[in-house]
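Structural prep section.
Before we set up the soaks we want a predicted structure of the protein with LLP in place, mainly to decide which crystallisation condition to try first. Input record follows.
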Amino acid sequence: MHAFAYKNGTLYCEDTKLADIAAAVGTPTFVYSKKTILDDLAEFQQALSPLDAHVAYAVKACSNKAILNMMAKTGVGFDIVSGGELWRVINAGGDPTQCTYAGVAKTEAEIRYALEQGIYCINCESENELRAIDRIAGDMGIKAPVAVRVNPHVDAHTHKYITTGTNENKFGVDITRIEELYATIAAEMPNLHIKGLQMHIGSQLTDVTPFVQAIEKVRPIVIKFKELYHIEFWSIGGGIGIVYDGCLASGQPEWWAERPEQITIRSYAEAIIPLLQPLGLKILIEPGRRIVGNAAAMLTTCIYEKKGEAKTFKMIDAGMNDIIRPALYEGYHEIWPVNEHSGDTIIADIVGPICESGDFQAQNRAIADVQPGEVLAEMSAGAYGFSMASTYNSRPLAAEVLVDGDKWYIIRRRQTLEQIVEGECLPE
Ligand code: LLP
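Run finished without errors. Recording the tokens verbatim:
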């Protein structure tokens, strides 16, 4: 569920008209619903309450300071993947002792920083990384809390760029080698404290089956590790998918009745709780997309129309630098005019201003016949939208707005051209 819907022919986020935000702030602008984010976080906590479960929100999905601050106030933890993300979380009022730190190539400076800040656990991805942390912790005279990411070799059936849990991927340590590695840590790395085990099989999973398969496969190892190393947690990662195609309709309760196969927080929880509850361990989950994905739309303005021999193009003022998902993952985002049209659908490509043929937000899409000057909302833009944006083609980063009922706040000012070139300098 989310808070975007047409009321009397105009698209709202909660009780705020998107057209009003576009008029005041300009476009492109990402608009987030506070209610959707907080409701989804609460739903995770509620659905998993039979477990000793803790949410570590995956910061990479959307890392705006105001959003992290709002989440931190609910007491959630954070899953970070760089020193920069940890700094952001702390800067936003988050607690580093509730953070886990993932990633395959952490630098020495990042590891030191995380340990100095009292990170809850560093989730490691290789023996060499563990040896580096052992050495750094030894230098610092402390014991570093670690877990290893096990790669369970389960196919998540998602896009190849966001599948992470097979032995073709760079992530984690193969399930066939994990027991030997834990024995090596215990025997040879005195400055490490084995705190848990981690896994994450991929992103945008719309079916619970791969989650269940991975949990069933790894569970016997978790049971052994609890005995042998007294591990305190098992992190089962993130990856719960959202609705892209059908997004606007999915804000209405009736939609869900027609799509019983679509994963929900509840169906995910119901499938995994019976497998995890008997373990008597703390369970961490690292959702990113499911919390922020449907909670935002990106507003963009139609600039021109071009009718070609083969296609009609609607040119917009947002490019692949603002949302790269269609270009990179063949991602599908619904696009709706903020002032509703009746019945005049055409087939068009919605393309941006960037000098690349991959710069499209939709291809061969049935869409309202919007005219230059009209504002559109690109839906499901909250996860891996702004957080993957760049200034390619010297295009300033978009503005971000947080809606709270009928009030809204700018949570990131549009970047200026001066800010784009700020760090550049001429050679002496
Ligand atoms: N935990 C770990 C270790 C991860 O690598 C990720 C995402 C998550 C949690 C959160 O996954 P989520 O719940 O958001 O699916 N840019 C891509 C998605 C990349 C996901 C990377 N890892 C996209 O736009 O689809």
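Observations: Residues 58, 61, 79, 102, 162, 200, 203-204, 237-240, 286-290, 325, 329, 383-384 surround LLP (CB under 6 Å).
Flagged for discussion at group meeting.
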